[in-house]
Design brief:
Oligomer: single chain
Number of domains: 1
CATH topology: Aminopeptidase
Radius of gyration: 16 Å
Order of helices and strands: EHHEEEHEH
CATH class: Alpha Beta
Shape: globular
CATH architecture: 3-Layer(aba) Sandwich
């Protein structure tokens, strides 16, 4: 497995991954439903991710082909009781369905954690849909602990 920065000519790969991600999450039907990739400016998103400072945006290759991506960021926070002013946020972890349960996501997460440690970050958060039992189980296996429940209401 190889984790690498996406190249500027790989927009089509990002589009494919985002489409699969959307289709996977569509059945959850939450109030803040993911927006169909066909209605988003994926080109702008992709180049914003590539150019974003203090972020970890990487494609993962398996058998010489891109099979997923990870996107995490450093978030500035108000100084807390631990003295931290930055935390990590694991924002997106996408693996093509055919390649799930093969250690790909675990590999990407571990590399993200190494990157965070190199930035002297001591805490990372991850979130997912409350109905996504697979990701909840994965996060627990990766050592995440449930911290709080977030509620939402449409007005």
């Amino acid at each position: 497995m190889l984790l690498r920065k996406p190249k500027k000519n790989e927009l089509a790969i990002y589009k494919k991954l985002e489409t699969e991600f959307y289709l996977h999450h569509k059945p959850y039907r939450t109030m803040l439903q993911d927006v169909d990739p066909r209605k988003r400016n994926l080109k702008k998103e992709f180049f914003d991710l590539i150019n974003e400072r203090n972020s970890f945006f990487r494609f993962v290759e398996l058998d010489g082909e891109v099979r997923g991506y990870i996107y995490g960021v450093l978030k500035k926070i108000d100084k807390n009781e631990k003295g931290w002013t930055r935390i990590g946020d694991l924002n997106s972890l996408v693996v093509l369905k055919k390649f799930r349960k093969k250690g790909v996501a675990k590999f990407m997460c571990k590399e993200f954690f190494v990157w965070l440690k190199s930035k002297k970050v001591k805490y990372v958060e991850a979130s997912c849909n409350v109905k996504n039992k697979g990701v909840i189980g994965f996060n627990k296996k990766m050592g995440f602990k449930e911290q709080h429940v977030k509620f939402g209401k449409l007005l």
